[in-house]
Design goal:
Pfam family, one: Kelch_KLHDC2_KLHL20_DRC7
Shape: globular
Organism: Cystobacter fuscus (strain ATCC 25194 / DSM 2262 / NBRC 100088 / M29)
Mean pLDDT: 86
CATH class: Mainly Beta
Structural class: mainly beta
Largest sheet: 5 strands, antiparallel
Protein name: High-affinity leucine-specific transport system, periplasmic binding protein LivK
InterPro entries: Gal_Oxase/kelch_b-propeller (IPR011043), Gal_Oxidase_central_sf (IPR037293), Kelch_1 (IPR006652)
Keywords: Kelch repeat, Repeat, Signal
Low-confidence stretches: 1-53
Number of strands: 31
Number of domains: 1
Length: about 400
């Protein structure tokens, strides 16, 4: 249910010219919860050249107090707000969908970027790994929505950047791969499990191939599919399965294409859609993994080659891919929809800002909040994708 407490509006924060470090000031903590970062929403979005007008649209909403990339965004279960954490500083902000405004939540205990954020079964949010230097890459901490505060969690066994974190059906969190330094270092094949009940981490086998910039998808049967990635030298097409009941890894069939910085989305059919991704950004191809047969099949190519994009399953079963980067086309404004029923992609309205390394969060009423990222526009900006069904209701 939505928070009943009324939050008063406060002063607008000036947009910072530089990211964290370099003497940039930080946002205040939980004591300033009622100081709203008020940036009124603008309606609608312009159509790009060659774009067919349609019912779906993007609308600018309030901007964050700071520009962010390499951050995380998590939908909070009690309030329906979105918690955005990290990037290049310790600040966190929360988005209130009811009025399109941001408020300043408590600062994290350490700086996180290239980290993961996982919503636990009890409603807390686990931040793990990432940071400004290797010694912070083992840190984990917990956000409590009720107290609006962060507390230290058990430290991971291994320093990690660019890893994945997957919530398992039993409430534990599986963390896989990554590197032991943010932009260099050794690529990891190890995996570990976090138990919220004991606040401890335990090793749980190793991948057959070390990887970072991969994806990890929870399958309907409780196993986790890890796909693609790279080891800083070799781009991978291999895939592996983790079985929580045995704590073991097994290889499954390889993809048709090698991919890194791609997306993986569990469809309502139980298949996994993997799209885009390679270091040169040339790959517009997509393919489907069938857990029942453990096989891959090709599906239609995207309209635009992209990496560093987001892919979100919408309530109607389609997948919205937004933004990303392509070496020839640069940073994308464009978005497109995949329809599992037809196996085809179609263009939809373009974003108001070009973005990659952004976040995308599905809100309870069915719209999609896209936040921050790298682009040629304000990196503190946010916007909402409104699908046709919601546009009709409005």
């Amino acid at each position: 249910m939505l928070m009943k407490k009324t939050m008063r509006r406060g002063a607008v924060l000036a947009l910072l010219a530089a990211l964290g470090g370099c003497g940039a000031p930080e946002l205040d903590g939980a004591e300033d919860r009622q100081d709203m970062i008020q940036r009124p929403a603008a309606s609608g979005s312009a159509l790009r050249d060659g774009e067919v007008p349609g019912a779906s649209s993007w609308a600018v909403t309030g901007s964050m107090g700071l520009p962010r990339m390499y951050h995380t965004a998590t939908l909070l279960p009690m309030t329906g707000q979105v918690l955005v954490a990290g990037g290049f500083n310790t600040t966190t902000e929360a988005y209130e969908p009811r009025n399109g405004e941001w408020w300043r939540a408590a600062n994290t205990l350490t700086t996180h970027r290239s980290h993961t954020a996982t919503l636990l079964l009890d409603g807390r949010v686990l931040l793990a790994g990432g940071g400004q230097h290797p010694r912070t890459g083992v840190n984990a901490e917990m956000y409590d929505e009720i107290t609006v505060s962060w507390s230290a969690a058990g430290r991971m066994i291994t320093t990690r950047f660019g890893h994945t974190a997957t919530l398992l059906p039993d409430g534990r969190v599986l963390v896989v791969g990554g590197t032991d330094k943010e932009f260099s270092g050794r690529t990891l094949s190890s995996a570990e499990l976090y138990d919220p009940g004991t606040d401890t981490w335990t090793a749980t086998g190793s991948l057959a191939a070390a990887r970072t910039h991969h994806t990890a998808t929870l399958l309907p049967d409780g196993r986790v599919l890890v796909v693609g990635g790279d080891d800083k030298k070799l781009r991978r097409n291999t895939a592996e399965l983790y079985d929580p009941s045995t704590g073991t890894w097994s290889s499954t069939t390889s993809m048709w294409a090698s991919r890194t910085y791609h997306s993986a989305t569990l469809l309502s059919t139980g298949q996994v859609l993997v799209a885009g991704g390679d270091p040169e950004g040339r790959n517009a191809s997509a393919e489907l993994y069938d857990p029942g047969t453990r096989t891959w099949s090709s599906t239609a190519d995207m309209n635009d080659a992209r990496r560093y994009h987001t892919a979100t399953l919408l309530p109607d079963g389609r997948v919205l891919v937004a933004g990303g980067y392509h070496d020839n086309g640069g940073i994308h404004f464009s978005a497109e929809l995949y329809d599992p029923a037809t196996g085809t992609w179609s263009s939809t309205a373009s974003m108001n800002a070009d973005r990659f390394q952004h976040s995308a969060t599905l809100l309870p009423e069915g719209s999609l909040l896209v936040v921050g990222g790298v682009g040629n526009h304000d990196q503190s900006s946010a916007e909402l994708y409104v699908p046709e069904a919601l546009a009709v209701l409005e």
